[in-house]
């Protein structure tokens, strides 16, 4: 994962398994119809179980969005810059709207229900999650999931409607959606302790994303400590009965014969569900150690892969790998987006997957085969003893990458001549043979950086226009493997450098974002972009700089420079893209057809979360975003969630 790596300097044809029968495609209009059936709501973290982040509401549209005003602000009361007693807080939560309420969670792990019209807190459940000692020394929660019984009579019973969420300390909770009371019949008094289960490796599990629900099944992945253990916890996905908490099945991406020597390949990001088929879609990450693969030379085909599982049984339907033998920590960081696109003149059910490399993979949802050409491109060999980098990597010909993937010394950038020269010298001193240059003792260039490219915010898909919209960061980094016997903390750990133990290996690993002496990225701007891709053709429709950066001098950068960002966009039938994500404490709206900014509003802190929208019983459409800032980035912090509506 990326989160623990960001320093203060940041601010200043192909591998697949095909095991399913052909099923008929559904017309694109059916995607819209499915959403319009519950147009008022936002019942899942990604808008719908398919993670399209699309709303069929158009009360707010490109003609009146300029009249959008703040109508309420809710405060969690939870803010920490990071101390020995309380880890830093991070605002990444996207609430859901269902049962005529907003449901979400707080950095300290409370589940909450909020009145959508006023922002008044209706109930709160505190699981007493530890506030310190959390993974990456941060307190955060991205969201919750909802389930309800099939009949009105059953829904009227206690716990006939439930909120389910995995707390950061790897405990799955079930709560009554109306009252917030514990569903005592679920697991052990309303909780399932995932940390007590066997994940076949070293370390502790955590949950960073909401679970997925289909029928009476709730499934969730897990987060593990990156770049720490050789035999990290296996990235086991687990499913439970949503009523009883009884374990139903497990799926492990690590082959049995190498489970004792490697781990991870875990799905820490949000998951998606094809509700018609009952298929669960996972974005998996790299196997351990993330940047050294001498212990996992055997193939791990389900690492760094889009994986489809049957949610009834956990049986794998297909798997498509986007990075072979990952040495760069290029996890798949975002929920697969399930959409029906116009492809070669026919409606085709697709999976659209954003990646840290900036590549966008478009895959047939039924067969697991790419819908646009993907070539196996030759990439550099490793010079590390015992390492065997994959000789090729899958590269889509379409869509085009949403961020740059090569940086030469002559491309170095700075505010003045001397810091440009310093960046040029730094880049020239690194091993640099383009994307997928393996880590080295000398130090290797990583571009896009370990932050991406795209990250957990993923993309949004508009079925009306056929456009997929994605935000991305554009930064360069270095990665260096230092022989453990030669590592000198006083010499090697300079400001901005992050250290990783990689226990049991001959090396420690050092990474840093490449910044100039004046505190700006060494690669040319824009450092953040917003891109719209036409899924009918695979071509980029438009691309604009996104976000602004506060420089070490305190000056705000020009809009044309863009800025690194975290969080994601949503799209609406009103012709709008809403996105926070930038570190400049703004929520913005763009015209989906042109990329022109139509509206922006200041919020209390950077909205490093994905917004959402809904129509409440009062008839108003609201747009809501968490604006808590990011303790890992060192930004301004807040405890706010903000709602906007038309006057």
Written account of the structure:
With 647 residues, this protein is mainly beta. It has one domain: Methanol Dehydrogenase, Chain A. It has five helices and 41 strands. The strands form eleven sheets. Strands 1-21-20-19-18 form a five-stranded antiparallel β-sheet, with no helix packed on it. A five-stranded mixed β-sheet has the order 2-35-36-37-38, with no helix packed on it. Strand 28 (459-462) and strand 29 form a beta hairpin. It is globular.
Quick structural summary:
Helix content is about 5%, strand content about 30%. By secondary structure, it is mainly beta.
Mean pLDDT: 93
CATH topology: Methanol Dehydrogenase, Chain A
- Unreliable segments of 5+ consecutive residues: 1-37
Please provide the count of β strands.
41
Q: Which CATH architecture would you pick?
A: 8 Propeller
CATH superfamily: Quinoprotein alcohol dehydrogenase-like superfamily
Text of the CATH class: Mainly Beta
Classification by helices and strands: mainly beta
Number of helices: 5
Q: In total, how many domains does the architecture comprise?
A: 1
Q: State the helicity in percent bands.
A: under 10%
Identify the overall geometry: globular
State the end-to-end distance: 41 Å
Output the strand order for the largest sheet: 1-21-20-19-18
Gyration radius, rounded: 23 Å
Main beta-sheet annotation: 5 strands, antiparallel
Beta-strand share of residues: 25-35%
């Amino acid at each position: 994962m990326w989160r623990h790596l960001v320093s203060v300097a940041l601010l200043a044809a192909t591998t697949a398994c095909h095991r399913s029968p052909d099923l008929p495609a559904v017309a694109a209009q059916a995607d819209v119809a499915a959403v319009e059936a519950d147009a008022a709501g936002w019942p899942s973290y990604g808008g719908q179980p398919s993670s399209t982040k699309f709303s069929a509401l158009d009360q707010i549209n490109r003609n009146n969005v300029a009249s959008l005003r703040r109508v309420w602000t809710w405060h969690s009361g939870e803010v920490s810059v990071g101390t020995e007693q309380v880890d830093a807080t991070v605002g990444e939560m996207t609430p859901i709207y269902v049962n005529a309420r907003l449901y979400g969670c707080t950095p300290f792990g409370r589940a909450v229900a909020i009145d959508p019209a006023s922002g008044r807190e209706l109930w709160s459940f505190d699981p007493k999650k530890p506030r310190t000692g959390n993974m990456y020394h941060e307190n955060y929660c991205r969201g919750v999931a909802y389930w309800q019984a099939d009949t009105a009579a059953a829904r009227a019973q206690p716990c006939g409607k439930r909120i389910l969420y995995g707390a950061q300390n790897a405990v799955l909770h079930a709560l009554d959606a109306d009252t917030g009371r514990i569903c005592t019949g679920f697991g052990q008094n309303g909780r399932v302790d995932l940390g007590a289960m066997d994940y076949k490796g070293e370390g502790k599990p955590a949950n960073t994303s909401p679970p997925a629900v289909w029928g009476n099944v709730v499934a969730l992945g897990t987060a593990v400590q990156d770049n720490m253990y050789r035999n990290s916890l296996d990235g086991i996905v687990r499913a439970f009965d949503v009523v009883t908490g009884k374990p139903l099945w497990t799926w492990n991406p690590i082959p049995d014969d190498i489970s004792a020597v490697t781990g991870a390949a875990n799905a820490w990001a949000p998951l998606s569900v094809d509700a018609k088929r009952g298929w669960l879609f996972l974005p998996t990450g790299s196997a351990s150690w993330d940047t050294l693969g001498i212990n996992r030379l055997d193939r791990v085909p389900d690492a760094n892969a889009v994986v489809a599982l049957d949610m009834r049984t956990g049986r794998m339907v297909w798997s498509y790998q986007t990075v072979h033998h990952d040495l760069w920590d290029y996890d798949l960081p975002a929920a697969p987006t399930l959409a029906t696109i116009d492809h070669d003149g026919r409606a085709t059910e697709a999976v659209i997957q954003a990646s840290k490399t900036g590549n966008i993979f478009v895959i047939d949802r039924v067969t697991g085969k790419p819908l646009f050409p993907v070539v196996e491109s030759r990439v550099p060999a490793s010079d590390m003893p015992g390492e065997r980098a994959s000789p090729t990597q899958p590269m889509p010909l379409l869509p085009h990458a949403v961020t740059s993937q090569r940086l030469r010394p002559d491309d170095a950038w700075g505010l003045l001549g001397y810091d440009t020269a310093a960046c040029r010298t730094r880049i020239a001193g690194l091993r640099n043979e383009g994307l997928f240059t393996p880590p080295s003792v000398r130090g290797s260039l990583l571009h896009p950086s370990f932050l991406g490219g795209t990250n957990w915010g993923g993309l949004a898909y508009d079925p009306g226009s056929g456009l997929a919209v994605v935000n991305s960061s554009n930064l360069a980094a270095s990665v260096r493997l230092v022989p453990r016997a030669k590592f000198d903390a006083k010499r090697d750990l300079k400001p901005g450098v992050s250290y990783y133990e990689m226990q049991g290996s001959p090396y420690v690993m050092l990474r840093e974002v490449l910044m100039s002496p004046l505190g700006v990225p060494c690669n040319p701007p824009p450092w953040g972009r917003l891109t719209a891709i036409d899924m009918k053709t695979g071509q980029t429709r438009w691309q604009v700089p996104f976000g602004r950066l506060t420089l070490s001098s305190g000056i705000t950068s020009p809009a044309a420079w863009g800025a690194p960002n975290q969080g994601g966009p949503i799209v609406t039938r009103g012709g709008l893209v809403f996105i926070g994500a930038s570190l400049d404490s703004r929520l913005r709206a763009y015209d989906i057809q042109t990329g022109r900014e139509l509206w922006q509003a200041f919020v209390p802190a950077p909205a490093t979360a994905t917004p959402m929208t809904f129509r409440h019983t009062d008839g108003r459409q609201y747009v809501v975003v968490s604006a808590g800032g990011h303790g890992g980035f060192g930004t301004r912090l807040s405890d706010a969630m903000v709602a906007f509506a038309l006057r």
